[in-house]
Each structure stands twice: as C-alpha cells, then as structure tokens.
Design goal:
This protein is an alpha/beta fold. It has one domain (2-156, 180-209, 248-265): Rossmann fold, CATH 3.40.50. It contains ten helices and twelve strands. The protein has helices spanning 11-19, 38-48, 62-67, 69-90, 122-137, 157-167, 184-191, 213-223, 253-257, 266-282; strands at residues 2-6, 24-28, 52-55, 94-99, 141-146, 149-150, 170-174, 178-179, 182-183, 201-204, 211-212, 229-233. Strands 2-1-3-4-5-10 form a six-stranded parallel beta sheet, with helices on both faces. Helix 1 packs across helix 7. The mean pLDDT is 97. The chain binds NADP nicotinamide-adenine-dinucleotide phosphate. NADP nicotinamide-adenine-dinucleotide phosphate is lined by residues 6-7, 9-13, 29-31, 34-36, 56-60, 75, 79, 97, 99, 127, 146-149, 154.
C-alpha cells in the first residue's frame, strides 16, 4: 500500500517507518512537507497519490504551546485540516493522532470517545481544534487519541527518569496525575490495523492499565534495577506552565469491540522497551 507519513522523523513517526517498512512509503519531515501550508499539502498529496495518509506531525511541547499558541495552532489544528482537505480530494483515508489532553481530567473512570471534552491547556485546545477540522473536512478519518507516549526516538518521561537517576539519589515525581503510559511502537503497530479498514471514527488507543507518574517512575527503576528514592509530590508542589488533567485514562473498549488487536498492558510494554533501550544504549545506537 502506498502510504504518506507526515512527521515521519518524530518519536511515533520513526516507529511507523519501521513498522510499515514493507509498504510503499512516502516519508516527510517538516522540511519536506510543512503541513501548515494548505496549497503545498494539497499539491504534494495530489502529485504523490498515496492510498492512505498518516499524520504523525504535531507541535508536542506542551508547556511551550502556552506561549506559542499561534505556532501550535498552525501545526495541531490547521495542519490536520489541510491534510483532511487533501485526503478528501483524493477520497483516501487520513489517520491522525490526538491526545488525552482534550479532556478536562475531572472524570474518575476511564474516558470513552463520547465523553465531554474540555481541554485545559493550549496544547489540548489546539489538538481538539485539529480533531474538529478533520471531521468537518472529510468522512474517511481515523482519529486515535493516545496518551503519555514514550519511545526509542526523541525525548520522553522514561528517558528523563533514567538520565536523572545517573546523578541523583532522590527524584520527586507528581503523584496526582493518572494516565496510561503508551509505548509509541505499540501505537505504530496498532495503526497497521487500519490499513485496509473502513471502520472510520474516533478511537481511544493506549496501553492497558493506569498509574500516576510517580507509580510509573517507580516501575521504571524497579524494572531497570536502579536504586533511587522516588518521592511523590502534588501538581501544586511541582508547578508547570501548562495545566495537565488529573485523570485522563482512556478506555480502549471501542477499539477492541471493533475487532482491532487489543493493546497489551503498560507494564509489559515498558519491560520490552527497557530491554531494547538498554541494548541500544550499550551498542551506541541511541
Ligand atoms: N508525546 C506524547 O506524550 C503524546 C501523547 C498523546 C498524543 N501525542 C500525539 O502523538 C503524535 C506523535 O507525537 P510524537 O511524540 O511522536 O511527536 P514528536 O516526536 O514531537 O514529533 C512530531 C514531529 O512533527 C513534525 N512537525 C512539526 N511541525 C511540523 C510541520 N509544520 N509540518 C510537518 N511536520 C511538522 C516534527 O518534525 P521536524 O522535527 O522535522 O520539525 C516532529 O518530528 C502527535 O500527534 C502528538 O500530539 C503525543
């Protein structure tokens, strides 16, 4: 299948290139195809005539979005809109990735696709605008909301914890934000379910299970046999520029009941990730 991947050199994009390597791929970073430019996007998509577009491009620096709203809006809202317009012209599906941050975090049970939206941060607002633009501009879309991504490529919470442990005996981590850490490689594999599917719509797709950042950090060190003291703190004690939801666990039920392959638990995914991470680090590949 001929597939265009935008944002192909980011964390998820890199895993998508690996997972989909047996397909005919057109891979683009922001220098090859700036998704904020409607004319270029439509021209590029029409000239290359893919059968499917996967948008892994985004402005993902959550705190920076607060002070760079227009830039974030361009990439997270206008970008997906442009891709939706182009896909609609060619009558091909668009796979787009969204986030748990479109919810306000007040619910205390796993969120379903139809739950009330209420992004609190600039990042969440721009991502929600992207979802809405896609739905307005094409019918053949898959919007996958995922959460707390980590992978082998790019910065993420797991790498930050492992780096910190190299020169700290004690690390403080927020214990009042609960979510579902998700391995970007598992999400890339999940996306392969969609290649020949016409079950369009919005889906929640994360690794199964839930934990706080504190609990996740403890597990990272436990599985890595690293002896470091992890101290739980509240969000108030560890303020960040962008507000984060206190609870944003996503319910994968719709994904599972649509016949797509269920996601494994975050513990299983983390364990595999850490083995690979350590191997790649030892062999200087990351
Ligand atoms: N990371 C998380 O925890 C998380 C959680 C939930 C959902 N998500 C969503 O998952 C998706 C993948 O996230 P990720 O963490 O893999 O992102 P990432 O590593 O930050 O990669 C995003 C890529 O987008 C590209 N990009 C930025 N502006 C662009 C533009 N104007 N035109 C084309 N490409 C552009 C960047 O390419 P260049 O480097 O070439 O500029 C970058 O490689 C995103 O939609 C994100 O919102 C992420």
């Amino acid at each position: 299948m001929k597939i265009l991947i935008t944002g192909a050199y980011g964390m998820l994009g890199s895993d998508l290139r690996e997972v989909l390597k047996n397909q005919e791929l057109i891979v683009t970073g922001s220098k090859d195809l700036d998704i904020t430019d409607e004319e270029k996007v439509v021209e590029f998509v029409c000239e290359n005539s893919p059968e499917l577009v996967i948008n892994a491009a985004a402005y993902t620096a959550v705190d920076d979005c607060e002070t760079h709203y227009d830039d974030a809006y361009a990439v997270n809202a206008i970008g997906p809109k442009n891709l939706a317009i182009a896909c609609n012209k060619l009558d091909i599906p668009l796979v787009h990735i969204s986030t748990d941050y479109v919810f306000d975090g007040t619910k205390r049970t796993p969120l379903i696709e139809a739950d009330k939206l209420g992004p609190q941060s600039a990042y969440g607002k721009t991502k929600l605008a992207g979802e809405e633009f896609i739905q307005e501009n094409t019918d053949k879309y898959f919007i996958l909301r995922t959460a707390w991504l980590y992978g082998l490529h790019g910065n993420n919470f797991v790498k930050t914890m492992l780096d910190l442990a190299e020169n700290h005996d004690e690390i403080t981590v927020v214990d009042d934000q609960v979510g579902s850490p998700t391995y970007s490689f598992d999400l890339a594999v999940a996306i392969t379910n969609l290649l020949f599917s016409d079950k369009y719509g919005i889906y929640h797709v994360t690794n199964e299970g839930e934990c706080s950042w504190y609990e996740f950090a403890k597990l990272i060190f436990e599985l890595s046999n690293i002896d470091v003291k992890v101290v739980p703190v509240t969000t108030e004690e560890f303020p960040r520029p962008a507000p984060r939801p206190h609870y944003s666990v996503l319910n994968n039920k719709k994904w599972n009941s649509s016949g797509f392959v269920p996601m494994r638990t975050y513990q299983e995914a983390l364990s595999e990730y850490l083995s690979l991470y350590n191997f790649f680090k030892k062999t200087n590949r990351i």
